[in-house]
Design a protein that fits this description.
heterodimer, A: Immunoglobulin-like, B: mainly alpha, Cytochrome C Oxidase, Chain A, 17 helices
C-alpha cells in the first residue's frame, strides 16, 4: 500500500476512534444513553398507570396499542425525574417524545424504560414513529410539563 | 489484467439476462411513482388514505420491496452474471442460470400479487406481529433462493479459472462480486430462519404466536449486511470501470482488495445498531455493534480516498493542473461515457450518505434520530443515490450490449444522474432536518400532522415537508427522462451484433496484492467473519430467546388479533 493510503487509513480510523470515545463519554459522564436492558424475562404489563413516589419521582407506565397511547395526557412537574415504562399491547409501536432524546420502541413481549427530566414548560407530543397499521399516523399522546 | 476483446454470451443467457434487467425496471415505475406520491402525502398536499386505488402504506410496501429488494437483487445477479462471464471468459451453466432466473421471477410475482391486492401492507421490513398473506413471505423466500442458485452457479467457473490461472489473482471485479454474494448468502440465512420457521407457519395459522424480539433480531441480522450487498456491485464499478472510463488508472488495486476483504469480515456483526432503542439487550452488546459499525465505515473511507486518487490521476492525464484542476478535466458531461456521469453524481451524493450513516451508527446519538425522517434522508443518499444511479446507468448499458442497440438520447441520458443528484440534495436534507424536528418516517402525515384542521397539526414541520416534495418532483422528472431514454433505445435499430459484453477495465497505478498474499484468499476471512458473527450475536440471540410472552398475528387494519391466545 502507498504511504498516503496508510496515512489516510490511520487518520480515518483514528477519527472514528475519537468519535467513539466521545459517545462513550456522553454515555458514562453525562448519562446520555440508550434505554437500559430490561431483560425479556420481565413480563409486560397491560394497564396504564401514573404514580408519584414519596420522594417526588414520577413513574408513568405507558401502554401502546392500535392506535393510541394510554394514558393519553399526563401532567408532570418541571425538573423532576420521570421514569417511563413502555409496553406494547398488540403490535410494535414507536414512542418519540418531541424535542427530547426520549426515543423508544414498544416491542410485544418486552418492557422498555427511560428516565428523563423536562426543563422547559410546554406540551410535548408523543409520536408513534413505527408503522403499526391503518391509523398509525393518528397515534399521538401528550406530556404536559408545568 | 488486460482485456481487449468482448465476450459473446449464448442466446439463452442473453434472453435470461434481459429478463433480469428488464423485469425490475418495469416494476420500478410503480416503485418510483409511489415514492413521489409519498412526498405529496407527507407534505399534506394529498390528504387521504389512498390515491387512485393505492393505499399509502400499501404503496410504501411496494416502494420498499421493489426499489430496495427486487431491483437490487435482480441487478446484483444480472451484473454478477455479466462480470463472471466477461472476466472469467466462461459461459454460465445454462440450467443453473435458467433455474435461478425462473425462481427469482416466480418469487417476485408470487409476492407481488398479495402486495397489489393490499393483503401485505407490512412494509419491506414486515415486522411481526403485523401479518401479511403467506404468499408474500413465500415469494420473498423464493426470490432469495433464486439469487443463491445464481451464486452457486458461479463457483464451478471460479474453480475452473483458478485451475487454468494457478499463478494469478482473481480479477478484482470477480472478487468484489463474490464477496458481495458471500455476504448475501451468510446474512440471508437468519432471514430464512425467520421467514421459514417463524413467519410462514405463523401466517398460515399452524402456530398461534411467535417470539417478536427474536424475529426482529433475525431480521436485522440480515437487514444491515443487506446494504453492503446493495453497495458492493457499485464499488466494483467505481474501482474497476470508472477509473478507466474517466481516462485513468485504479490508484491502488491493493487497497481495493483490502476493502472487499474488510467488508467480508465486518458487514454482518453490526445489525444491533438498528435496535439501540429496544429493551431486552444489554447495553454492552449494543456498544459492541456500534464499535463494529464504526469499523465497517473504514473500508468506505479507504474507498473515498482511492477512488478520488484514481480520478485525480485521470484528471491529470487529461491535462488538469494544480490542486483542484483535475476535477474540471474529468469527463463529467461526456455523452459517450454515461457510466462516468452516473458514477460521479453518485460519489458526490455518497459523501453525505456515508457521513450521515456514521451519525445513525452512533449509539446514544441515535436517540435523536431513530425512526425519524433523518433515516430516510440518509438511505436515499446511499441506496437511493450511488447504488441506484449505478443500477440505472449499468442496466441501460447491459441492455445496449445484450441487444446491440446503441443508447439513444445520449445527452438526456447523462442529464439523469445530475438531475437525480439535484433532487436528492433537496429531498434528503429536507427529510433530515425534518427528522431532527421530530418528523416520523413511514407515516401518512397528510392525515394528521400536516393537516391544519387536525388537533395534531405541526406548524414546525411544514417547511421541510414541502421541500421534500419539491425534491420529489425533481427526482420524478429525472426518472421520466430516464424512461424516455429507454423507450428511444428500445425503439431504435440494432447497430452492433447482439450479446457481446465489454467493460472498461482499469489497470493499477500502484502494485496489486502479491498473488500469494492472504488478501487473495477468501476462506480465512470468511472464517474470521463467522467468528465475529458468533461473538457479537451469541448473547443478543440468547437474550431474545428468553422472551416469555409471544405474539399472535394482527391484520394491519384491525386491533383485534386474528388468533386469540388462551390466557
Amino acid at each position: 500500500m502507498e504511504r498516503t493510503e496508510k496515512l489516510v487509513l490511520l487518520f480515518s480510523s483514528g477519527l472514528l476512534g475519537v468519535f467513539f470515545l466521545a459517545l462513550l463519554a456522553a454515555a458514562e459522564l453525562q448519562g446520555i444513553n440508550v434505554p437500559p436492558c430490561l431483560p425479556a424475562t420481565v413480563y409486560p404489563f397491560n394497564e396504564a398507570r401514573h404514580d408519584t413516589l414519596p420522594d417526588g419521582r414520577h413513574q408513568i407506565f405507558y401502554v401502546a396499542r392500535m392506535w393510541r397511547f394510554e394514558p393519553e395526557v399526563v401532567e408532570v412537574p418541571l425538573n423532576t425525574p420521570i421514569d417511563l415504562f413502555l409496553s406494547a399491547a398488540d403490535v410494535t409501536h414507536g414512542f418519540y417524545l418531541s424535542w427530547t432524546n426520549t426515543n423508544l420502541m414498544a416491542i410485544p413481549g418486552l418492557v422498555n424504560a427511560y428516565t428523563l427530566r423536562l426543563e422547559k414548560p410546554g406540551v410535548y407530543p408523543i409520536i408513534c414513529h413505527e408503522y403499526c397499521g391503518t391509523a398509525h399516523h393518528n397515534m399521538v399522546a401528550y406530556l404536559v410539563a408545568k | 489484467m488486460q482485456l481487449t476483446s468482448s465476450f459473446a454470451v449464448t442466446r439463452l443467457t442473453r434472453s435470461l439476462m434481459l429478463v433480469e434487467v428488464g423485469l425490475p425496471l418495469v416494476l420500478l415505475v410503480l416503485g418510483i411513482y409511489h415514492g413521489f406520491l409519498q412526498t405529496l402525502y407527507r407534505a399534506g398536499l394529498l390528504q387521504s388514505a389512498s390515491f387512485a386505488g393505492l393505499n399509502y402504506y400499501q404503496g410504501l410496501t411496494l416502494h420498499g420491496v421493489i426499489n430496495a429488494v427486487v431491483l437490487t437483487t435482480f441487478f446484483g445477479v444480472a451484473f454478477g452474471n455479466a462480470i463472471v462471464q466477461y472476466y472469467l471468459r466462461q459461459p454460465l451453466i445454462p440450467w443453473v442460470h435458467a433455474l435461478s432466473t425462473g425462481l427469482m421471477v416466480g418469487g417476485t410475482l408470487t409476492a407481488a400479487v398479495p402486495m397489489l391486492l393490499g393483503k401485505a401492507d407490512v412494509l419491506y421490513t414486515f415486522y411481526p406481529p403485523l401479518k401479511a398473506h403467506p404468499a408474500f413471505y413465500i415469494g420473498a423466500a423464493i426470490l432469495v433462493v433464486g439469487s443463491w442458485v445464481a451464486f452457486f452457479g458461479w463457483l464451478p467457473l471460479v474453480r475452473r479459472w483458478h485451475r487454468v490461472h494457478s499463478d494469478a489473482s482473481l480479477p478484482l471485479a470477480v472478487m468484489g462480486i463474490l464477496v458481495s454474494f458471500l455476504i448475501w448468502f451468510l446474512c440471508t440465512i437468519p432471514l430464512a430462519i425467520e421467514v421459514l420457521f417463524m413467519l410462514i407457519p405463523w401466517s398460515l395459522g399452524w402456530v398461534s404466536s411467535i417470539n417478536i424480539p427474536l424475529a426482529r433480531t433475525l431480521f436485522w441480522f440480515f437487514g444491515h449486511p443487506l446494504v453492503y450487498f446493495w453497495l458492493l456491485p457499485t464499488y466494483v464499478v467505481y474501482y474497476v470501470m470508472l477509473p478507466k472510463a474517466a481516462g485513468g488508472k485504479l490508484y491502488s488495486p491493493y487497497a481495493a482488495r483490502l476493502v472487499f476483504i474488510l467488508f467480508l469480515v465486518l458487514s454482518i456483526p453490526v445489525g444491533l445498531h438498528h435496535q439501540y432503542t429496544e429493551p431486552g439487550f444489554e447495553r454492552f452488546w449494543k456498544g459492541v455493534h456500534a464499535l463494529l459499525t464504526f469499523a465497517v465505515a473504514i473500508p468506505s473511507f479507504i474507498t473515498a480516498f482511492t477512488v478520488a486518487a484514481s480520478l485525480e490521476y485521470a484528471g491529470i492525464q487529461r491535462g488538469g493542473q494544480g490542486l483542484f484542476g483535475w476535477m474540471a478535466r474529468l469527463p463529467w458531461f461526456d455523452a459517450n461515457r454515461p457510466i462516468v456521469a452516473y458514477s460521479l453524481a453518485g460519489l458526490l451524493i455518497f459523501l453525505f450518505g456515508g457521513l450521515s450513516g456514521i451519525v445513525n451508527a452512533s449509539y446514544n446519538l441515535n436517540q435523536t434520530i431513530h425512526n425519524t425522517g433523518f433515516i430516510s434522508g440518509h438511505f436515499h443518499m446511499t441506496v437511493g443515490g450511488p447504488v441506484f444511479l449505478v443500477i440505472l446507468g449499468m442496466s441501460l448499458e447491459l441492455f445496449s450490449q445484450l441487444t446491440g442497440k446503441p443508447i439513444r438520447g445520449r445527452g438526456w441520458n447523462i442529464a439523469v444522474p445530475y438531475l437525480w443528484m439535484l433532487g436528492l440534495f433537496i429531498f434528503s436534507p429536507a427529510m433530515m432536518v425534518g427528522g431532527l424536528l421530530g418528523q416520523p418516517r413511514r407515516t401518512n402525515m397528510g392525515l394528521s400532522y400536516l393537516d391544519p384542521s387536525s388537533p395534531h397539526f405541526r406548524l414546525d414541520w411544514v417547511v421541510t415537508s414541502y421541500l421534500a416534495a419539491i425534491g420529489g418532483v425533481i427526482l420524478v422528472i429525472a426518472f421520466l427522462i430516464y424512461l424516455g431514454v429507454w423507450v428511444a433505445t428500445i425503439a431504435g435499430p440494432a447497430e452492433q451484433p447482439a450479446g457481446y459484453l465489454a467493460f472498461p477495465t482499469a489497470e493499477g497505478l500502484h502494485p496489486d496484492v502479491s498473488t500469494t498474499s492472504i488478501l487473495n484468499r477468501l476462506g480465512p476471512w470468511l472464517g474470521l467473519a463467522l467468528l465475529l458473527v458468533l461473538v457479537s450475536y451469541w448473547a443478543p440471540l440468547r437474550q431474545a430467546l428468553r422472551t416469555l410472552q409471544y405474539a399472535p398475528p394482527y391484520e394491519p387494519d384491525n386491533p383485534a388479533p386474528i388468533v386469540r391466545l388462551e390466557k
